[in-house]
Amino acid sequence: MPHHATPLHPPAVRKFLSRPRVVAACAAVAALVLLLSAAPAAEDPSRWHSYLVGPLPGGTREETVVAVVGSFAGAAAASPSAAGAPLSSLGESNLSGEIEPTPAPSMVLVPAPSPAENFDDGSMEEPERPEIKGNPPKDPAPLLQEPISTGLPTMSSDVNGEHDMDRKPVLPLRLEQAPLWSTAADKELIYAKKDITNAPLTLDDPDLYAPLFRNVSMFKRSYELMERLLKVFIYHDGAKPIFHSPELKGIYASEGWFMKLMEANQNFVVRDPNRAHLFYLPYSSRQLEHNLYVPGSNSIEPLSIFIKNYIDMISAKYPYWNRTKGADHFFVACHDWGPYTTKLHDELRKNTIKALCNADLSEGIFIRGKDVSLPETFLRAPRRPLRDIGGRPVAQRTILAFFAGQMHGRVRPVLLKCWGDKDADMRIYSRLPHRITRRRNYVQHMKSSKYCICPMGYEVNSPRIVEAIYYECVPVIIADNFVLPFDDALNWSAFSVVVPERDVPKLKEILLAIPKSQYITLQSNVKRVQKHFLWHPNPIKYDIFHMILHSVWFSRVNQMQID
Q1: Which residues, 6+ apart, have CB-to-CB distance to 3 below 8 Å?
Q2: In angstroms, rounded to a whole number, what is the distance separating the alpha carbons of residues 390 and 373?
Q3: CA–CA separation, 142 vs 361, rounded Å?
Q4: Residue range 357-378: average pLDDT?
Q5: What residue stretch is flagged as signal peptide (predicted)?
Q6: Which of 48, 73, 191, 517 falls between 20 and 30 A from 479, CA-CA?
Q7: What is d(CA 280, CA 238) in angstroms, rounded to the nearest whole number?
Q8: Are 543 and 223 contacting, i.e. CB atoms less than 8 angstroms apart?
Q9: What are the φ and ψ backbone dihedral angles of 324, each rounded to 5 degrees?
Q10: Are 342 and 354 in contact (CB under 8 A)?
Q11: For 522-533, how does the pLDDT look when each residue is reduced to its tens digit (9 = 90+)?
Q12: Half-sphere exposure (Cβ direction) of 10: Cα atoms closer than 13 Å
């Protein structure tokens, strides 16, 4: 969790606004919601408008949390009960033209400025944060290389780049319940699934290097169909800064850049939800933490309540969530807490497509084959997202392995204990000493290293993986249970090394055992795959924006049932 400035509240106020009192206030708001829900539907909406407004600017963060957490609950209670109605029951006027939902009344929520997160050595870290999860499993499962079974043949390829086009489809990932009614968009998704399954063989595409993909032919056909068919509806409800307020700098930039580019897109976004294949929930997990988390409370319950109330509101206000129980909805979250804020809403947790940086199989929240592993990208200069991209040629990479960063999580202390200041080839630091940074800073170390060590931190994900790709250094990923980004499409064995956590003491031995010719191939492939992880102010084909959107699209296509 990013560093929080020292709260401005005096000790007496902090004591008064303790976690039990905040939770009690939330319960009181919920009781008020029940009273409002019993009121006649024809009552003046202004009766609940005041609960959306909350405290005036200048109120404490705890007061704002209580007011905002209750806001969507009031909206859901006052909404007309049309949630279960079929699409055709929205009214003749709705069907004759485009639909643009009315934004919810504004919520007074004044965000504090984002804290500075850069360290002197140029690295990006997650500062110390309270533990908000239960104990991790005693015996974590190893990182899995193959995706779970879906309705489409696996996008697999061997190290020689030859593709298994004849692999038989296996049982698809099944929804708990079929859609309440069918739409034209559903028929297009079924058509796409059949067409992808029978994709023509792709040979020598100059834009797609086959060994980087599990199955380049299926990826290309799926991508083409996405470009031609996909329509996304974005909910207008929700006020800034939690909604529609992208953060474009720092380690959570992935969710912000996707939000910015998605909302500005004119190729995929539609104003008429009846045409949509996917529905985007445009909230920021980073802004949730920044604005609703009460420092010192050690609880993310206010964040989870807020999201639950938001989903309850849109499911009561519109029929689209209820048609599929959220299966055609998606959100994008890069904050570590993104998965845990879904726990209070079963349909959100189980059915919705979750694009998460924290793609941890061991938590029981990320569902492989349905959810999307989101790359965590650290951007230092939002106006120049491609700054410093590139690295030294192989002959000038004189460092075998490099890592520098804080010692949090279960892997990094072991890494430092085994290799810190013990071997000249293994440049492993907790923080880069100033005597070293005077000659070569953090970025220059990555540009000069053969392998960049990417151990998990508090969670399995790390911005170093994409950083290594940016600086053309082969990433060495140490994080059991981690589903790698774009796992549905990319063949990570072609451009990275995955080391089980238990093998950290043998790390140098593992790296030295890789033949020079294989290292050269890995490093060359890192340079080739780089374009799929780059942000562009104006998105281009196959860049990271389109790769994220494709993974969401491919997940939704996979869910469709073909008789």
Answers
A1: 115, 117, 127, 128
A2: 24
A3: 10
A4: 97
A5: none
A6: 517
A7: 13
A8: no
A9: -120, 10
A10: yes
A11: 999 999 999 999
A12: 2
